[in-house]
Design a protein that fits this description.
21% strand; 9-stranded mixed beta sheet; 20 strands; Aminopeptidase; metalloaminopeptidase activity; alpha/beta; manganese ion binding; manganese; Leucine Aminopeptidase, subunit E, domain 1; 2 domains
């Protein structure tokens, strides 16, 4: 972590006002310990400490403090409304908390203080939490979540394949990682034909971004992220409303990049490789077409049924490379299917895995961190929906079980013996809620980190 405070935090100060975090269940006991005047004030306002509530307390010279109602004290988002619910100024936590609660509180406050201000100033500044020092892990987790939000929120004009590469390169330099980018026609020379096929129509050259970090004696984990920096749908062009937010189609890459950065910042005992196929799925005279049969790194031929199912096409080359590295585990992140959103909604990423222990480890971490995933089946009989008459496999087919068939397609490029998990993630908030501003969002990032931390203790 850095020495400077992130947005929403400041150094401890005697001028900071006290803020109490209280749940409905704990309110009676807490209120009984307060002065009679405070008890009367809370009763007059019918304050119940319900989750998401806040009330100001009077003082001799104006505001004397505040009480913030919370739900689950280990859920970071229980605290995320506070920076906006409280007046602008400096606040300090009035009572001590155990380490896990303190970590969740700081993370939640930071998430609630987030504002994307690259193009527009925030309507108001967040209230600041005055602290002696931030918990180091909470600070790094917050930085990772902010990384995802900033990357996804940035329009493609300023976050195309080259710009995404620059971000990853800067992270590699900061952490002493090795870095490589395979760009344009070099993709064909180095046998990444599927990535090239999807990205060749754009004036912005497609590329495969590769970062490597860690001790050779540590377990090797490969992180793969779908980096489609904008998705028109290709020749199977999306309608306007479907294309409107497609700057977010690199949300999987944002998660993989942020997770790699987090692993390096926390110095987990891992050896990691980050692979991001970064492309723009554009319309143009060189666009790949429905009915084309394209080659892949693995040698599996793919008939293009739908050019808007491009994410799995770029991922398959990256997964093939990941498999060649013989890692202990492969994790991929992708804003892959609308079907996953229909099934599970925007907040619950769909998890597919070929290894029960890996899947359960992520599910358990999600429960602990209040950052959930939901396992979906790799129902292999549905491979029939990807049958091609002219190639080994089609990239799409039926509208049935769309998230499942996309995952099954990816599984074709991963060895059966290699533990692999695929996260179909939305990476977006359609509307604003406390701590969850409209726009880019990190989902299951914290649980992915917690899973790796627990799975590979060193």
């Amino acid at each position: 972590m850095t020495n400077s405070f992130p947005s929403g935090f400041c150094a401890a100060s005697d001028n900071a006002l006290p803020v109490h975090f209280v749940s409905t269940a704990d309110l009676p006991a807490w209120r009984a310990q307060q002065p009679t005047s405070t008890q009367a004030w809370l009763e007059a306002q019918a304050f119940t400490a319900s989750a998401g509530s806040a009330v100001l307390l009077p003082g001799d010279d104006g505001i004397g403090g505040a009480v913030v109602g919370i739900g689950d004290p280990l859920d970071a988002y229980a605290y995320a409304h506070a920076p906006s619910a409280l007046p602008v100024g400096d606040w300090r936590v009035a009572s001590a908390h155990d380490a896990d609660t303190w970590r969740a509180l700081q993370l939640g406050w930071g998430l609630g203080a987030y504002r994307f201000t690259r193009y527009k100033a925030a309507p108001r500044a967040p209230a600041r939490l005055a602290v002696e020092a931030l918990d180091a892990e909470a600070a790094d987790l917050l930085a990772a979540c902010v990384r995802v939000r900033d990357l996804v929120n940035t329009p493609t004009e300023h976050m195309g394949p080259e710009e995404l590469e620059a971000v990853a390169r800067g992270i590699a330099q900061a952490h002493g990682a090795t870095f490589e980018s395979i760009v344009g026609e070099e993709l064909l020379a180095k046998n990444f034909p599927a990535i090239h096929a999807v990205g060749r129509a754009s004036h912005r050259a497609p590329r495969l971004i590769r970062l490597h970090w860690g001790d050779a004696t540590h377990p090797h984990v490969v992180l793969v992220g779908k980096g489609v920096c904008f998705d028109t749908g290709g020749l199977d062009v999306k309608p306007a409303d479907g294309m409107r937010n497609m700057k977010k189609d690199m949300g999987g890459a944002a998660h993989a990049i942020a997770l790699a950065e987090l692993v390096m910042a926390r110095k987990l005992p891992l050896r990691i490789t980050l692979l991001v196929p970064a492309v723009e799925n554009a319309l143009g005279p060189d666009a790949y077409r429905p009915g084309d049969v394209i080659a892949t790194r693995k040698g599996t031929s793919v008939e293009i049924d739908n050019t808007d199912a491009e994410g799995r096409v770029v991922l398959c080359d990256a997964l093939a490379l990941a498999s060649e590295l013989s890692p202990h585990t492969i994790l991929d992140f992708a804003t892959l299917t609308g079907a996953a959103r229909i099934a599970l909604g925007p907040d619950l990423p769909a998890l597919f895995a070929n290894d029960d222990a890996l899947a359960q480890a992520w599910i358990s971490a999600g429960e602990r961190e209040r950052d959930p995933v939901w396992r979906m089946p790799l129902w292999r009989p549905y491979l029939r929906y990807l049958t091609s008459n002219v190639a080994d496999i089609a990239n799409a087919g039926s509208r049935m079980a769309g998230a499942v068939t996309a995952a099954l397609y990816l599984e074709r490029f991963v060895p059966e013996a290699t533990p692999w998990a695929h996260l179909d993630v939305y990476a977006w908030n359609d509307s604003a809620r406390p701590g969850r501003p409209a726009g880019g969002e990190a989902l299951a990032l914290r649980s992915a980190y917690a899973m790796l931390k627990a799975r590979y203790p060193g």
